[in-house]
Amino acid sequence: MINQVLFQALRNRKNEMEVEMILTRTLFDGDMVKVSRRLMIGLSFFICLFFAIGCSQQPEDPAWYQSTTSGDTLESKELITKINDVNSLFDLYEMRQEYVLRGGDSSDIMMELDRRRDQLVESAETFPAIPGKLDFLGWNIQWAGVDPDRQGSEDTEKYRISGYFVVTGKMDRDWIWKIMTKVDEKDASVLPPDRQKCRYVNWQVHPKTSTWEPGEHHVVSTVMELKPVPYYIFATMFIYPELINHGAFDYGWFVDPDLPPVPKDKPAPHLFSQKSAGKPAPQ
Fold it and tell me: Where in the sequence is the domain holding 112, given as residue range(s)?
C-alpha cells in the first residue's frame, strides 16, 4: 500500500511536503504494522536523495558570467575581475554579445565591459580604413578545421579571419572588405591556375555598413582556405562598381602554427602603391 502511494507521488513529481504527508497519513491508516523501521529509513533516504539530485544539476552551457556549478550569476566583484583580466578586443566583444543575448541585465556590468573596451581601444594602433568614417583596429586569425573535401598530401586548412572596426562617421554606403592573401613565387603552384601569375587570392566580405552608426564597434569575419605555406595577408575597403578604395592595412606574414615560423625580417611582397599600415589588435 505505502509503496504504491509513494511511487505514484514521485512519478507525478509531488513536492517533498506532500510526500511527507502521504507517509504520515499512511501510518495512521493501519499500514504501520506492514512497514519495518529499516524500510522507513530506506524510503526517507531515497526521498531526500531524489530531491537533492533534482536540485543540484550542473548547467550544461554556462555563460562566462555564470557559475559552472550552479549556473547562478556570479557576484559583481568577481565579474569585474574577470572583465579586467581580458586583454583582447575580440574576446571582450564576444563577452559583451553573449551577455546581451543571454539575458544579462546589469547596467553596471555593461558599463564595466565598455570601460575595459575603451581602455583596449586606446592602447591599440588604429588605421583609417575609410578616412573620417571607419577605423580598423586589428586582426584575429583562428584555425577552423580541415576541409574534408580536400584531403591529401597538401590538405587545405580552414581559418576564420576577423577584423575589428570602429565607426567614426556617417556610413551611407555598403563597403566591401577585400582581403588578399599573397604567396612567394616558389609557392605559387599551390594557388588555383588562374591566380598563379599574380600569386594572390581575393576574399570579399559584404557587411551592411550602411546601417552602422558612429560610435559602434563591429567584428567582421569570414572563413578562408589556405595551403600549408606562408601567406602575406592584407586588406582594403572598396566600393563596386566605382572601384573606390583606400589604403591597405596588413596583417603581415601568416603561417600555420604547426609549420616553421616565417623569419621576422622577411620582406613584404609588393602590394599597392599606397602605404600599408595596421597591426594586430591586442590579443
Answer: 76-122
Q: Are residues 179 and 236 in the same domain?
A: yes
Same structural domain, 118 and 138 = no
Cell, residue 36: 519495518
- The reply to whether 194 and 159 lie within a common domain is yes
Residue 161 CA to residue 144 CA, distance in Å, equals: 9
Angle at 166 between CA 224 and CA 110, to 5 degrees: 105
- Which secondary structure element, helix H or strand E, spans residue 164, and what is its range? strand 157-167
pLDDT tens across 49-73, in order? 444 444 445 556 688 888 788 778 8
Same domain, 198 and 219: yes
If one counts every other C-beta atom within 10 angstroms of the C-beta of residue 136, the result is: 26
Q: Domain containing 192 — which CATH number? A: 2.60.40.10
Which pLDDT tens digit goes with each residue over 110-137?
A: 999 999 999 999 999 999 999 999 999 9
Q: What is the pLDDT of residue 58?
A: 55
Say if residue 83 is in the same domain as residue 7.
Answer: no
207: left (phi over 0), alpha (psi -120 to 50) or beta: beta
**42-46, 89-93, 159-163, 192-196: range with lowest mean pLDDT:** 42-46
pTM to 2 decimal places = 0.71
Q: How far is CA 51 from the centre of its chain?
A: 36
Query: Helix 107-123 crosses helix 76-84 at what angle (to 10 degrees)?
Result: 10
Q: In terms of DSSP H, where are the helices of the chain?
A: 2-11, 16-26, 37-55, 76-84, 89-101, 107-123
Instruction: Name the domain count of the chain.
Output: 3
Closest of 55, 78, 56 to residue 66, by C-alpha:
78
- Enumerate the H helices of 102-188 as residue ranges: 107-123
